[in-house]
Design goal:
The structure is a homodimer of 162-residue chains. Chain A has 4 helices and 7 strands. With 162 residues, chain A is of the alpha+beta class. Chain A is globular, with a radius of gyration of 15 Å. Chain A binds chain B through residues 30, 32-33, 36, 73-79, 115, 117, 141-144, 146-150, 156, 158, and chain B through 30, 32-33, 36, 73-79, 115, 117, 141-144, 146-150, 156, 158.
């Protein structure tokens, strides 16, 4: 890849705006989803670890390249949700997403996690997203038809780690 | 049933403590789950409708008989989660739960909801709970093995309403 990338776990003041811009730039998330992505960053900054949200940022000289957000699922022993993973559009397909996901999985395993769940849409626009998870070792665990809207179902993927 | 029951949607100052006591008395929820049940009540009192939590309480002269808590699932058009439904142990089997659930379903349909999801455990202790949902028209939509803990899976039920 030849690029200098920096992985960062701690949050910086620029992150709410940078995450919002990055998630919007991917073009696959609704305005409501973009707002949620930003809110989780703000929630983490306001409440720290108690927020239940963990982050990993990858950046180069240009700024944020991609990030992931995950957390333990309350009232479970070892299950985690991967809430967000996004990569700057012009960097997609170059292995950044896979690198972020692998780093997140290592953090989850280190925190005692054994099962990682990811939810995504069954719509055609998300074919690359679902293919990405499958390449990374995630298997479809459930499908909920019409979950997001009529004709827009939810697919749940699972990877057992640690 | 011959009992005088009052259905109430607005929250009262006694509710956090009453809900905690009722949920604990059922004997099927962990200490962490009991804490979550109370927190949702407090969240609603602090943030109102913006909390995303709606409640229905049923009470008699003795106090709280049962309650339900639900809310719209963010970033979906018509999907709702039923987060909690609980009935005082000595009142179970008398139709109180079914009455609360039906009233909650009516409120959800009135709010534009079309799909109601409920999550529960696959453990034997929850056989009566799952049988209750099935009697009330809910169908198993997914099963996640070992979700809560080793040997303790999550069952997701769905009812289409409205």
């Amino acid at each position: 890849m030849g690029q200098t990338m920096n992985l960062r776990r701690e949050l910086a003041p620029v992150d709410p705006a940078a995450v919002e811009a990055l998630v919007r730039a991917t073009g696959v998330f609704s305005a409501a989803e973009v707002a949620v992505a930003r809110e989780l960053v703000e929630e983490r900054m306001a409440r720290g670890v108690a927020s239940g949200y963990e982050f990993l940022f990858v950046e180069d000289e240009q700024g944020l390249l991609g990030y992931a957000c995950w957390g333990p699922i309350p009232c479970t022993e070892k299950s985690f949700d991967l809430y967000w993973i996004a990569v700057r559009p012009e960097q997609q397909g170059g292995g950044v997403g896979r690198r972020i996901l692998r780093a997140a999985e290592e953090e989850i395993a280190r925190a005692g996690g054994a099962r990682i769940y990811v939810e995504t849409s069954t719509r055609a626009a998300y074919d690359p997203t679902r293919a990405f998870y499958e390449r990374c070792g995630y298997a479809r665990a459930a499908t909920f038809d019409d979950f997001y809207a009529e004709g827009d179902g939810k697919a749940v993927y699972l990877k057992v780690v640690g």
